[in-house]
Amino acid sequence: MAQTTDKSLAGQSALVTGGSRGLGLLMADRLAARGCTVTIAARDADELASAQKKLLHRHPGTAVHTSVCDVRDQEAVHAMFRTAHDTCGGPDIVIANAGIIQVAPVEAIGAREFRDAMETMYMGAVHTCLEALPYLKDSERGGRLGVIASVGGLMGVPHLLPYAGAKAAAGVLAEGLHAEAAASGVSVTAVYSGLMRTGSHLQAEFGGARSKEFGWFSAAAGAPLISMNAQRAAERIVKAVAGRRARLVLTPLARAADLAHGVAPGVTTRLNGVVARLLPQAPAGRPSRRRGAEVDPPEGAVSSRFQSWGSALNERAADAYNQRDS
């Protein structure tokens, strides 16, 4: 994990949802490096304990707290903020990051998948933001709120429709809150991230032709020319939140997609149609979803070599960023 000498946030209290692994863990690390007291929240107590151990090893003497919380439950989110306030003060900085990834063609999923995505990534962000705002408004230095959306929220990405829809809603939430909260001294940053090498392919859920879906997603998420180093991404996000930026789009590919869709949405949508035809087709029936850690590798020499090449960096990230099952 990268180092930083920026101490502009020193002494402030920060809370990160989805902070037990991947990007959330890395953002918590960047906040701790700036001298923040950090609370990381997630649903899994064991993952949180492992993440806390990593952060304390990286930042001896820094206060790192954990909170078992399901952001889909507003009462649980309310209790999380009350406990964080009583324990650490603030919070002065909150990053709504909790999310799930479902990879499958629309023929292999139903309304449940869309509902799960919206409950976690949109309503979870809503609960986090609404419960955070009273504390952020009381922050002596002006509260800061970050909401992690995605390039998937800037256009309809094939085989990621539930994810894209929920992230689009989260992005609109962040940009609207930025306008409404400004008068109270609270800044809100909407972050549209592209593919990052976080090891998330092991925790993502795959449907349809699971092995093939896992193959293309893990390769793309780990390919250096397509995806971004997750440490660098976390540093840029925390810097943007600290600097009170309204909007951050990460990775050149995400910025190009954002520009293309804004300038020529019809052409971009048709190009997405071409991409969709190149992706694996859904088999007969509707096989159950499985996490990437449980999916067999893709068959065939070419696809296996491509998957191994593209996911090599992602596999190392999975070890470093707490994505492996304990």
Description of the structure:
It is built from 10 helices and 12 strands. With 326 residues, it is α/β, with parallel strands linked by helices. It is 49% helix and 14% strand. It has one domain: Rossmann fold, CATH 3.40.50.720. The longest helix has 27 residues. The N terminus is likely disordered. The strands form 3 sheets. Strands 3-2-1-4-6-7-11 form a 7-stranded parallel β-sheet, sandwiched between helices. Strand 1, helix 1 and strand 2 form a beta-alpha-beta unit. The relative contact order is 0.14. It is an enzyme of class 1 (oxidoreductase). GO terms for molecular function: oxidoreductase activity. It comes from Streptomyces longisporoflavus. This is SDR family NAD(P)-dependent oxidoreductase. Belongs to the short-chain dehydrogenases/reductases (SDR) family.
Number of domains: 1
Order of helices and strands: EHEHEHEEHEHEEEHEHEHHEH
Helical element count?
A: 10
Got a strand count? 12
If you compute it from the alpha carbons, what radius of gyration comes out, rounded to the nearest whole angstrom?
Answer: 19 Å
Structural class: alpha/beta
Strand adjacency order, main sheet: 3-2-1-4-6-7-11
CATH architecture: 3-Layer(aba) Sandwich
Averaged pLDDT: 89
**How does the major sheet shape up?**
7 strands, parallel
CATH fold description: Rossmann fold
Instruction: Say which CATH homologous superfamily is assigned.
Output: NAD(P)-binding Rossmann-like Domain
**What is the class in the CATH system?**
Alpha Beta
Categorize the overall geometry.
globular
**Estimated share of beta-strand residues:** 5-15%
Pick out the low-confidence regions.
1-5
Separation of termini? 21 Å
Family: Belongs to the short-chain dehydrogenases/reductases (SDR) family.
Organism: Streptomyces longisporoflavus
GO molecular function: oxidoreductase activity
EC number: 1.-.-.-
